[in-house]
DNA sequence: ACATTAATTGTGT
DNA sequence: ACACAATTAATGT
């Protein structure tokens, strides 16, 4: 909401100082817009034309995609210092977004116009490295997800999902419902409840209302 | 403080 | 998968 270039510059220095060269930071603060989103706000939805791409300052953004049958499936999360790498391919080919980005927690980010990315690619080495790195990271993560789908049964998928949440949210106490887990893993609430109960009996976690404590060590 | 509703979780078929 | 019970949180009076 704030468009003050000095403020943007300060934020960029704080979070991207080691990654971006000075001239690039100047460029971004000139063309970027600072925006915040509340939990569950959409940053971008499927089928919408993308005019801006986000650089995440802080918070957590969930990237998901729709199945044939209207089912939403979780792809990965963006956190501080990330950008939506896939959107670059999308916008170079002028296409509309194939993904949905929603705020999982309160999010602050800098939105910059898509047509700047090509220009910066040519001008700034640190930008090129940044883009390729984020592509690499996303690819690794997606391969992890595919592995999970192909090789693990639902109980280990759930446990993997939970420990991953612990990492991402920085807390062993997850405020999450069985229904939400079912949505993310494209399963039904009842089977999640049953498997969570089993995991609790195995001592891997403790169930509470709207809350799951994951034992880790 | 109490009653009513909605949301979440547990269980049996 | 479905139906329903049990428990808890949220809201109104």
In words, what does this structure look like?
- The chain is of the alpha+beta class.
- Helix content is 47%, strand content 23%.
- It has a four-stranded antiparallel β-sheet with strand order 2-6-4-5, with helices on both faces.
- Strand 4 and strand 5 form a beta hairpin.
- Helix 1 (5-16) crosses helix 2 (22-31), helix 6 packs across helix 8 (189-201) and helix 7 crosses helix 8 (189-201).
- The longest helix has 27 residues, at 125-151.
- It is elongated, with a radius of gyration of 19 Å.
- It starts with a helix and ends with a strand.
- The structure holds a DNA duplex (13 and 13 nucleotides).
Overall pLDDT confidence: 87
Question: What is the number of helices?
Answer: 8
Report how far the terminal alpha carbons are from each other.
42 Å
Taken from the alpha-carbon principal axes, the silhouette is elongated
Instruction: State the secondary-structure class.
Output: alpha+beta
User: Secondary-structure element sequence?
Assistant: HHEEEEEHEEHHHEHHEE
Please summarize the sheet with the most strands.
4 strands, antiparallel
| Percent helix | 40-55%
Task: Summarize the helices and strands and which ones pair or pack.
Layout: H1 5-16, H2 22-31, E1 33-37, E2 42-44, E3 52-58, E4 61-66, E5 72-78, H3 86-92, E6 100-103, E7 107-113, H4 115-123, H5 125-151, H6 154-169, E8 173-174, H7 178-185, H8 189-201, E9 205-208, E10 211-214
Antiparallel strand pairs: 1-7, 2-6, 3-7, 4-5, 4-6, 8-10, 9-10
Helix pairs in contact: 1-2, 6-8, 7-8
This protein binds a DNA duplex (13 and 13 nucleotides) through helix 8.
